[in-house]
Amino acid sequence: MLTRLSVKNYALIESLEFCPGKGFNIITGETGAGKSILLGALGLVLGNRADTQALRNADEKCIIEAEFKELTPAIHHILTQEELDAGDELILRREVLPNGKSRAFINDTPVNLNQLRQVGDLMVDIHSQHENLLVNASEFQLAIVDDFARNRQALREYEKLYRDYTMAHTRLQQLTETENKSLAERDYLSFLFQELEEAKLTYGEQELLEQELETLTHAEEISIKINQILHTLEGEETGVIPALAAQISDLHHIGKFKISLAELSERFASCLVELKDIRNELEKAAGEIHFDPTRIEVINSRLDLIFRLQKKHRVQSVEALLKLKNELEQKLISFDSLADEIAKLHRDCNHLKLLLEKAAQNLEQQRSAVIKPMEERLKQTLQLLAMPDAEVKIILEKIEDFTPSGKNSVTFLFSANRGQEPRPVSKVASGGELSRLMLAIKSLISNKTLIPVIIFDEIDAGVSGGIADRTGKVMKQMASSMQVITITHIPQIAALGDHHFMVFKENDGNTTRSAIKHLSPEERIEAIAGMLSNQNITEASREAAKQLLALGV
Predict the structure, then answer these.
(1) How do residues 436-481 score in pLDDT, each as one tens digit?
(2) Its pTM surpasses 0.90
(3) Domain hosting residue 529, numbered range
(4) How many beta carbons lie within 10 A of that of residue 42, not counting itself?
(5) Which CATH number belongs to the domain containing residue 38 in this structure?
(6) Residues 477, 551 within the same domain
(7) Closest CA relative to residue 63, chosen from 16, 25, 26, 22
(8) Which of 525, 436, 521, 429 is nearest to 472 (CA)?
(9) Is 103 left (phi over 0), alpha (psi -120 to 50) or beta?
(10) Which own/partner contact pairs does 520-527 have at CB distance under 8 Å and 24+ positions apart?
(11) How many Å apart are CA 69 and CA 3, to the nearest integer?
């Protein structure tokens, strides 16, 4: 329950503390005194968007703290899940800085706004008269059924599966679209790769082929020149090698008489050996060179293929073609992996869809089981609220597609008068009827809901007299199982409270500020007497106030 709300530098509030108690808390005050401002501050600390225009002093920061005790298991669960301190009490704090930035804390630990809002949504339900319009919304009606059925855990499980399924299905659609768009590209790339694969290119191949072609093209010229050189080296009459061989012995002989000549003899011998080696290599080369038109044709054909591929892919070498082939292979592998991923996602989606279908069926069964009890309870509460012939029919329908909340839609049908066929709430309920219907719904879930605090902001607007008294008694009954805080202008309701607070304005001649005080029994008599007499308090109005308070005990 909410035990303390501290507000500093917010709108008309300079600094105040509101400390509601257990049970039924009443807040009264003149119009414009700051009751709604108090709720605005509470909404801010529960995660609503901040606005620097709400700062009382634009040069100072606004600080709002809300302290809660008797925490529910759901709160402990989310605090543990978010790795936050989960002790016996919970303190939410919001700071709005003059520069427009804001900070949020849970038990003194900095958190983001979404975390603050998640916790706040589980702590307090703020219901205003404007919220009556929500009863017309199918989503709200479905949430009421789930709240009454205590479906929170089942919904969590379904929502997780729904998120997983939606993400997987979206990813599958994206990849399938990518695959469809790339189908033509994949076929073309596969053709290019196959062409290069069949070419069986090797590194350095082009240079070797061009060199061999050059040799074969000039084979006859090469053979003639080699033979001429061989004849020069070993011709019978003019051969260089025989002539030199005949002279080497003479040079070796005279080398005995002069050392330098001996050295020349050795060099001479080395040259002769080198010439003989050159002769041998030339003879070998001459034996290898043959004019081969068939081989020339093969080489030309191979080079034509290489040149054609180079021109097609706008490259200058076989190495560049081989690099391109590797790149094409990697792209084709990525296409294969894409197909594998798509196949896996298909399997995942089918599995998740089965689990999601089971979770949706579980939700539907739990919802269906509470429809009749809800209708009976609503009818009973509406009778207490002076609508004896009112009837509510809750239509639970199955829908085809998965939604974030299952595969059901809910429609509340309402009839206020005997003999009138129940129709959708928006078509038959007046403003006052809507207020009572919404109160009946809130009463319906007060014993079921996991939210420990509910705040009614003038939900009694448009009701008076006996209906107001019954409205107050319904809220009083709700307060037996949860903390109820009600802002009201109706004395019959105010008299039923376990605690009574008054919001008022203070004016020191320079500034106006809102303040709040917890009324004593005597002060309550004066406050309710003022509400009964339009602030023209008389002994008669005091006596009437005492009687109301006595009845409310």
Answers:
(1) 888 888 888 766 566 789 888 877 666 666 788 888 888 898 898 8
(2) no
(3) 520-553
(4) 23
(5) 3.40.50.300
(6) no
(7) 16
(8) 436
(9) beta
(10) 521/549, 524/500, 524/549, 525/549, 527/28, 527/494, 527/500, 527/502
(11) 7
